[in-house]
Write a structure and sequence with these properties.
The complex is a heterodimer of chains A (344) and B (163).
Chain A: H1 2-5, E1 15-18, H2 21-24, E2 37-39, H3 42-51, E3 56-60, H4 65-78, E4 86-91, H5 96-104, E5 114-117, H6 122-136, H7 140-154, H8 164-181, E6 185-192, H9 195-202, H10 204-221, E7 227-230, E8 235-241, H11 252-258, H12 263-278, E9 294-301, H13 308-324, E10 330-332
Parallel strand pairs in A: 1-2, 1-3, 3-4, 4-5, 9-10
Antiparallel strand pairs in A: 6-8, 6-9, 7-8
Chain B: E1 11-15, H1 21-32, E2 36-40, H2 43-51, E3 57-62, H3 63-66, H4 72-79, E4 83-87, H5 93-103, E5 107-110, H6 116-126, E6 139-140, H7 149-155
Parallel strand pairs in B: 1-2, 1-3, 3-4, 4-5, 5-6
Classes of the chains: A alpha/beta (344), B alpha/beta (163).
Amino acid sequence: MKNIDFLSDADKPKILLIGDAEKLFSDGQDICGLGVEIRSNILDGIETAGGGDFDLIAVAMSGSSAKLSSAIEALRTANSGSRRAKIILLAQMYQEPAARQLVGSASNGGMADDYLICPTNFSYLVSRISYLESRATSDERRTTEIQELEKLATTDELTGLKNRRYIWEFSRQIIEHARKQTGRVTLLIFDIDDFKHYNDVYGHSAGDDILRQAAILMRHCCRCHDIVGRVGGDEFAVIFWDDPHRKPADTEAERRSAADHPKEAIFIANRLRKELSKAQFPLLGPQGRGVLTISGGLASFPRDGSTVDELFDQADKALLDAKRSGKNRIYLVGKPENDIADME
Amino acid sequence: MAKFNFNMQMQAIVVGNLSDEFVRHSTNVLGNYELEFSVCPDVYQAVSRLMKTNGNVLIVGRIEQLSRENGRFFHISGKKKAWCCCLTETNSARQYLRSLSMIGTNAFVINDSAEIEDVLARLLQTRDTSVAASRGKPLVMNRDIRLSDDEMDALLGNEETKL
């Protein structure tokens, strides 16, 4: 917590944190002693905001957007002291679209100033105060620099897809969420068949072009809330998860069906394989259409694994099975007839 | 109709949406008693509003609304020494008991929106602002099943008394 430890008490920003510090911050256990007020319940947070003059109010996201926007508005009204507190939402990765929406409406008044994806460092949260101030004072250069750095940390430079680190952490968070909500998560891992051959014969720029075009096609084939990433040289991953606007499973039948491979994931994976095999790759020359194939493995939570490691292991095994069986196919884990081309 | 006439001016916060019949009825009754009131759409706004008051507040709302966030609202309103008037329309005894145990002190429990007048009349009659708070348990206003203290203790599971 170096960046605020050296400040005198008078200079330390006054922070109200609403949520579980240890879950939100990788250095959460060190927050004690920094004068941060912590409340676990949003109503207690609003009460505390009403009695203090805070520089920053950090709110862990939970519940619907409607609830959150009302709670933020209440925090603003309660904390109408001499300083206007900055409100930062602390979101899990799968809550990012909702967080972006709540921050996006800040210009209409009343909503949050910014959001951070958790877990993060508490010192980073503190540093956001100066970032928000630079934004408020129209320091565009600094704002853009920070935004660029954040993008670099989670994006694969070549394809523009999410990077391995992001995919891994997102999988961990969404599995935790699905465990609580009896939801489902399906992981697809695939690579481009004989990619080394294209690289060796047509050169690395052709290889890069294949990866870039494959990425565009993948993004196009998936639903907008699915997460697509590049996790290795020519290895990609897609995380299929429940529509965030869909309500949690209520009935036993729904819970049972959640344990099976979601049909949507199979449908999308098949579409991806077909589209890719039809696509034109100009750098491969006149024979560049219809030559590219992929092999992949699909594993689903909770059926095939209950942790990120287990799910990736299982999907990897299915991918290897698909390769051994002659490539150009996507296999499900543990099905006797497990080529998904036969399952739609 | 008699005027509500506390020594210290009382405010009311009605929690809920104006499209709710109970909220509309409550605001009408409060208006008839010439009480200053505001309407908050949910408990979040209500806590914010409550923090701007100096006590002597009556909060009116449905139990489903007031008990959100694990009933934390009752704890906060209790600290501000505000009274709650909760409408519970459930026919399930189990749910009813659950509501009562959540509400805690400083509260009137009504089963029909018309009973809000009984709450105000009672406050007016006694002019004793600690009428509910001093009891240490919610006051059930149901005209059909008004409970004695012993009955209430038994319902809420206090061991010394039996129903």
